[in-house]
Amino acid sequence: MGMMTAESKETDRLIDMLRRSALLEELQQEALDRGELQDRLGVSRATCHRHTRTLDEFGVIERVDGRFQLTDAGRLLTDALTTFKRDAGSALRLAPVLDAVKDAPVEIDAEAFADATVTSAERGDPYSPVARFVTLMQETETLYGFDVDGIAPLYMEEIKDRIVSGMKTEDLVLPEAAKNALDEYPEKCMEACMSGYLTIQLHDCLPFGLAVFDDRVGIGVCEPDARQLRVFVDTGSQEVREWAEAVYEVYESEAVLMEEFTHQEFHEAMERGGLELTM
């Protein structure tokens, strides 16, 4: 077995710190004795002793009057570990979106999403990405994009109400999504269309959901072979907005306008565009 390099030793040390980051984060709040640490972390006395001994040897915690507290180096380390865990978690949640946009007709650097808000469907809260979209929709005066209905199909009433109340909306939709909306919500579709604030166009290939609000841009990715939103990412980045505008223009140039949101107009638009349902 070869001798460990200084770099590999440093890597192992950082891994040790990450494994014990929960303990450091507890001490970031307040000094604690060993029993309190055991209770907070839910570990045995032996495990707690091993963790505190290791961290003490690294010089990031110290024991004063029977209570453990962070050293100056420990406070810096804990801040760094907290930031790393947050950013790494965001990067992992962002992965489905980066994978979806990589084949978009306009390229964008992943770094443009560095400050994005990432909302993922979680066990026990599968609709949190949809809720995030609805929150942004309620705050905007204009909305355009594509497959927006795919982002929030269960919130047709809220979307319709915002459109009727004056939210100017342009949406490129998949033919099957338009047909489903007409079949399931005919009155809502008609009311939104008759308001004069809604423009619907059909497109037969939309790889992700795009929503351009007044101040932010949102991207939604659904579960494979399902219409349930998996992750919704939104950002105020000007670079992402410019990219979104360019991508929208490409897809809009290929879309077919529905002059009215009716079954008849739907079929006429399908014929004009030579589109086919894939349902």
TrEMBL record:
* Pfam families noted in UniProt: FilR1_middle, HVO_A0261_N
Question: What keywords sit in the KW lines?
Answer: Plasmid
HVO-A0261-like N-terminal domain location, by residue?
A: 10-88
Using the record's annotation, list all stretches that form the Methanogenesis regulatory protein FilR1 middle domain.
Answer: 126-253
User: What CDD domains is this protein classified in?
Assistant: HTH_ARSR (cd00090)
What InterPro entries does the annotation carry? ArsR-like_HTH, FilR1_middle_dom, HVO_A0261-like_N, WH-like_DNA-bd_sf, WH_DNA-bd_sf
Protein name as annotated: Uncharacterized protein
